[in-house]
Amino acid sequence: MARKHERDHLYQKAGESTWYVRIVVPADVRPAFGNRRTLTKTTGTSNKAEALVARLPILAAWKHEIQLARQQKLENADRWRESLHNEAKRSERSLTKNVMSVVNGRRRNYTEEDVDKIMAAFAPFMAESAESLKNSGADAELVDQISRLVREKFLATGNEAISKAQELNSLLRQTALQTTSHEYQLSIAEQAEAAIILANPKSYKPRSPITKGMLDQWSTHLESQIATAKTRDMHRNRVQRLSDWLTKEGRKLDFDSVHAFIESVSSSRTTRQNYLWSGRDFWKWACKYHQVFRDQFSSKPCPFDGHALPRAGKAAGESYVAFTKEQVEALHAKALSLGNQPLADLIQLAAYTGARLEEIGRISIENTIFKDGKPIAFKIEQAKTSAGVREIPIHSRLQPVYQRLLETAHTNGGHLLAGGKNKYGNRLDYLSKQFGRLKVTEGHDSRHVFHSIRKTTTTELHRARMTMEVIPWILGHESDKSFTLDVYSAGPSFEQKQEAIEALKFDFPSLK
User: Fold this and answer.
1) Who wins on pLDDT, 8 or 346?
2) Quick one: fold of 212-316?
3) Which residues are CB-neighbours of 179 under 8 A, at least 6 positions away?
4) What is the pLDDT of residues 356-388, one digit of tens each?
5) pTM > 0.70
6) What are the respective helix, strand and coil percentages of the chain, to the nearest 5?
7) Span(s) in the chain for CATH 1.10.443.10
């Protein structure tokens, strides 16, 4: 008797000293392995220790093949269902037409001579079709009955004509089931489901063609295209939500379905644009890099193009708007009155620098520039774009606050402001949420966000007659392309930027 070692997948055949590696093929993917229940391969050694090592790449290769087989089944899952659904509807229409022609008395009666001529004319086509069905997995005896039933159907009259039409219809459905089972290597359970779809096409509901595996591959692709993890995750989440909706609603991936989906998500123009943007990006990737998806959809128009979005009313949406200078001052005062010094400090830093929330969160002793022991500027070394990497002078009225924060920076890992780290690396996420609650208590709507302070800074610099040759280098935006300064110029001097920063005038109490 063979000695088996189920845990390590090794065993020896009776009368042999060589170790073999063996694995049981999961039932759901056995068709992909020729319906074999097990896979067996020699390790080529009778030494157990060597066999334990030799089995590893063999097992890894088999498990990879099983994973690929499962992935292929998932990706093909709705293709065979949709194919059978279409065949079932066609078959249903054909049978109904035949039955009604008899009931209404409009069916033509054929003579033996008529049928002989028809069968002779179609003989080459029927022979070719029969051969194709057999090669595609249909039972030969079943296929050979088609020609006979077609002839009998032509010759039959009255109720017998209906009976023959039903018999031929049933036979064609059986061949469709067999060829589909063969092509897609359906399991017994899937064959049972296929039979139900053929018998009742209404039982079929489309499933999303967007699988988890596809989303994983697309997400990997996005890592080389989009720098920020948050944007990548939002892309994936939008497409995942669409996929879930398609499956839940039993809808196909087409223009009408996408239109219905974005209407169900939001009336906001911006939100709908974002969903279409994500969907379009996924579609382009899948049609280019995913074979199954490409075969199914590349010849079809992109369902994310051509949608009419709201252009008027609230649904059209409005961009974030700037706070007025007085509103920023009021928000700062409110934070102080609530005893929230970190939030008040954040507002001051934003107003006097124009820096983004995540940029302020990264300010530390390490990226602060000192002169004679005094902080005079800080560097933004990580930004959304290359233009965002810059040096920002510290406003004279911000100096006391900056110095105070430096003194406690050692308790924050060297950073000016205390913070954690959310999944996207934004240290000040908690302060952002506090600011959101604060601005609501002050009567500001959704158009006002923390980023609005950055717009306030921009507005105040502009009103102070600072030029476009300086402002973009402070805010970290590309300069006016007509001057191509961002291409050919090293930028304004520190003194020029300092002069611009000093033009900012805010009335913040207790700047200590």
Assistant:
1) 346
2) DNA polymerase; domain 1 (1.10.150)
3) 133, 136, 137, 138
4) 999 999 999 999 999 999 999 999 987 655 556
5) no
6) 60, 5, 35
7) 325-502
